[in-house]
Amino acid sequence: MAEQQLRFDYHSRAAHPALRPFVAGLMGYAYRGDPPELHRGLPSPFLTVVISLDEPLGLAWPGAPVEKFHTLASGLHPAAVRIGDSPNRSGIQLALTPSGSRALLGLPSSELTSTAVPLDAVLGRPAGELAERLREVPGWEERFTLVERLLLKAWRDEPAAGPGAELGWAWRRLEQTAGGIGVQELAAEVGWSRRHLTERFRREYGLAPKVAARVFRFEQAVRRLKQQPRTKLADLAAGLGYADQAHLTREWNALAGCSPRQWMAEELPSVQDRTGDQGAQSRV
C-alpha cells in the first residue's frame, strides 16, 4: 500500500434521497499521522458543515486569526480559507447547496458568507449532542446515518421557504453553464434588470452573480485537475473559457491565494488519496 494511502483515509456516501437536493455528499476523513500543516479551503458553490471527531478544527479567513471549532457551518466565500493550526485528525464534512442552507439550517446562505459558526448556533442543542454521539460510534456508515437523521428532522420540523423562483433559476443556470453565462443574459432570462438581479442574488447567496460565476468556473478547474492532474494548464484554460493560461493563473491567485502549479505541488497528492471523490470539493 502506498505511503499516501496509509496517511489519509477518506470515506463518502450519497445522501439520503430526501436530502439530495440539499446535500451534495457526506464525507469522512481520518489522518493516521499528523494532518498536513497547510490546507486551503477553496471557494466552491457549496456551504460546508464539519463535525470534528477529535480535536477542534483550526480555521482562519484571509487576514484574520485562527478560530477553532468542534463543529461548524460555513457559507460561500470568494477567497480561500486556511485550515490548520490544529491537531484535528478526523471528522465528518458535508457539502450543502444554498437550497440546503434554507431547508436544513433555516437561513439564506448569505447569512454565513465568508464566516463560520458552531453548528449548534443554527441547529440548536441537538447538533452538540450529535457530535458527542458520533465520537462514540466506530463505523463511518453509522456516523453518516446519525448525521442524516439530524438533518431529516431539521428539514421536516421546520420547512423553510425556498429562495424564490427567479433566484433559483439564476443559480441553476450558473451551475448548468459552469459560470459561462453573463449577468446581463441571466437578468434577461429571469426578467429583471441587471442591478435588481445583482442585489437580490447577493442578498440571498452572499455573492454577486458575477463572483458566483467565477466560483463555478474555478470549481470546474479544480475538479479537472483532481481527476486529470497531467492536464496542461493552457488546455484547461481553453476548455473552460479563460482567455489564456495567464487569465487562469490570475483567477487562481485571486480565489485560491496561489497559482495552480503551487496548489498542485502542495496539496494535490493528498487530495488524490480521496478515493471515490464525488466532486463536492473540500471547502474546509
What order do the helices and strands come in, and which of them pair?
Layout: H1 3-7, E1 8-13, E2 23-31, E3 39-41, E4 47-52, E5 57-60, E6 67-69, E7 71-74, E8 81-83, E9 90-96, H2 98-105, E10 116-117, H3 120-123, H4 125-136, H5 140-157, H6 165-176, H7 183-190, H8 194-205, H9 209-227, H10 233-239, H11 245-256, H12 260-272
Antiparallel strand pairs: 1-2, 2-9, 3-8, 4-7, 4-9, 5-6, 5-8, 7-10
Helix pairs in contact: 4-5, 6-7, 6-9, 7-8
Q: Specify the biggest β-sheet.
A: 6 strands, antiparallel
Number of strands: 10
In percent, how much strand structure appears in the residues? 15-25%
Sheet/helix structural class: alpha+beta
- Rg is 18 Å
Mean pLDDT: 88
Q: How do the helices and strands follow one another from N- to C-terminus? A: HEEEEEEEEEHEHHHHHHHHHH
Uncertain runs with pLDDT below 50, 5 residues or more? 1-6, 275-284
Q: How widely separated are the two ends?
A: 27 Å
Share of helical residues? 40-55%
Describe the strand arrangement of the main beta sheet, using strand numbers.
1-2-9-4-7-10
